[in-house]
Design goal:
- This protein is an alpha+beta fold.
- The protein has two helices and nine strands; from the N terminus they run H-E-E-E-E-E-E-E-E-H-E.
- The chain is elongated, with a radius of gyration of 29 Å.
- The termini are far apart.
């Protein structure tokens, strides 16, 4: 039968359609069977900190920055917004905490975290759960 005959075109069309359908079903099955990995939920960190604390000797130190240690890296957060009033303030950051990860969070005088000559206002270790970060904001408390 010649290739340009109407019958041969019909067979080729049927074969092409059948192959396309088979690929579509196979791909859909492969996609459905593939496990989906979902990332652990995250939230922005806010910290309830003392505005001032007793330093060395008779000194008083005032809040300036947060030092956050997630076990892999240490971040100094010195850009934030605050709310509240003395003796405690709420420090809101853009730092993202992940559920199930432990964080060492400490408050420091000045904007340089634990640079030489600065003093800590205290710290806390936290491990937020899925429920803790579900609102999109996680709040820790120091002191």
């Amino acid at each position: 039968m010649p290739l340009n005959s109407p019958r041969s075109r019909t067979r080729r069309t049927a074969r092409a359609f059948g192959l396309t359908a088979l690929l579509a079903v196979s791909s859909a099955t492969a996609l459905a069977a593939a496990p989906t990995a979902s990332a652990a939920p995250t939230a922005s960190l806010t910290v309830d900190v003392p505005m001032a604390a007793r330093g060395q000797g008779n000194s008083v130190v005032y809040f300036g920055s947060l030092r956050i240690d997630n076990g892999t890296s240490v971040t100094c957060v010195n850009k934030y917004t605050t709310s509240g009033a003395a003796p405690r303030i709420i420090v809101s950051t853009t730092y993202q905490v992940t559920a199930g990860t432990s964080y060492g969070i400490s408050a420091w005088e000045t904007g340089n975290c634990d640079a030489g000559g600065t003093q800590s206002l205290g710290g806390v270790t936290v491990k937020p759960s899925d429920a803790d970060v579900s609102s999109g904001v996680y709040q820790a408390r120091i002191g």
